[in-house]
Amino acid sequence: MNAANDDRKIPGDKASSHLGFLLSQVGIFASQRFSEAIGEAGIHPPLFRVLNVVDAAEGESQHAIGEAIQVPASRMVAIIDELEERGLIERRPQPGDRRVRALFLTAKGREVLEQGRKIAAAHEQKLIEGLSKKEHQELIALLRKLAESQGIPSGVHPGLSDPIAHTSE
Amino acid sequence: MNAANDDRKIPGDKASSHLGFLLSQVGIFASQRFSEAIGEAGIHPPLFRVLNVVDAAEGESQHAIGEAIQVPASRMVAIIDELEERGLIERRPQPGDRRVRALFLTAKGREVLEQGRKIAAAHEQKLIEGLSKKEHQELIALLRKLAESQGIPSGVHPGLSDPIAHTSE
DNA sequence: TACAATGATTTACGAATGAAACGATTCATA
DNA sequence: TATGAATCGTTTCATTCGTAAATCATTGTA
């Protein structure tokens, strides 16, 4: 008693048991579920990502924030526009340099960020509900090691910078 | 001595160390890299996915194949069109039922599938180059366990069925 | 002052996907 | 065997999404 429809006549293929496929499968699944969950805070993952980074570095320019998470400038504009429309972030002119827009969280922005963090924590819990504490730690350690060995910069999400992860294996 | 640009003035944020973020980050990274790699075989991940499934169940209908990997019918049309144009797959009418198009690999389709498998194997190797044999096995086991506990059906890739994995955490 | 570089923005365009409508065919049943 | 429901594949359409390139304002430099 497990999955929903177990009347599959079609046998599993080789590719779907490789690490690459598993990683991609589980990773994208986690992304999608998180995307749905964070929707309850009225935002979507890119907005949440940026809220987090601005919180960690308030007063930085759009450019600096975008560079830190490898998001193209033209996309940053759209993201910040959206955050500003919702009253979560403020663009303030910088005294020294009138080209720069320094970014700050509003009070409401902090609220939403907190709400988002709770949602993320719940998401996290749901994700590991089938694992023991030890397994959870091991999985994190292995993924970190993998990320490091593959040169994936910390905090940079590929879905935000590059094309879009297609699929398969 | 590690990453490329370590002149980061912006400190890491909390979110980026969670399991959910890591999974999504690493999973999408793996997807993208694989997508580039499989391009050398002249195909992209969805095509490769379908080639694999057709190989595992030749003669099945478009509908059956699509259902097995949860791809909407209208999307199957485009995918099979593409595979057929490249001479990798054949749509054959089914004697008993004239509505059905049974799918078969062509000789060229088998060649490309083999080539794709080699590419996938190389991708796999590259992915685990920083891990020991034991760690590799552990990671697979943990991901499998996670997938199962989360009800992710084997062989079904979320990127093929649902919206598209956005991002972050 | 002229010219290059930078930060932010706008515009135009293309790629991808799914929901829904459609035609053809088959099945169930009266 | 006639009729309506269901199935398979296809087409159409609208939408979402993101980038690349052009643009504007400002600053730094020669």
Describe the protein.
The structure is a homodimer of 169-residue chains. Chain A is mainly alpha-helical and 169 residues long. In chain A, 56% of the residues lie in helices and 6% in strands. Chain A contains seven helices and two strands. Chain A has a two-stranded antiparallel sheet. In chain A, a hairpin with a 7-residue loop joins strand 1 and strand 2. In chain A, helix 1 packs across helix 5 and helix 2 crosses helix 4. The longest helix of chain A has 21 residues. Chain A is elongated and about 65 Å long. The two termini of chain A are 28 Å apart. The N terminus and C terminus of chain A are likely disordered. At the A-B interface, helix 1, helix 2, helix 3, helix 5 and helix 6 of A face helix 1, helix 2, helix 3, helix 5 and helix 6 of B.
Name its key features:
169 residues; 7 helices; homodimer; mainly alpha
List the quaternary state of the chains: homodimer
String of helices and strands of chain A: HHHHEEHHH
Number of strand elements of chain A: 2
User: Average pLDDT across residues of chain A?
Assistant: 90
Q: Give the chain pair forming the largest contact, with residue counts.
A: A-B, 85 and 85 residues
The helix-and-strand class of chain A reads: mainly alpha
Report on the biggest sheet of chain A.
2 strands, antiparallel
N-to-C CA distance of chain A:
28 Å
Taking Cα atoms only, what radius of gyration of chain A do you get, to the nearest Å?
19 Å
Morphology call of chain A:
elongated
Percent range for β-strand residues of chain A: 5-15%
Strand order of the largest sheet of chain A: 1-2
Low-confidence stretches of chain A: 1-8, 163-167
Measured as a percent range, the helix fraction of chain A is 55-70%
> So how many helices of chain A?
7
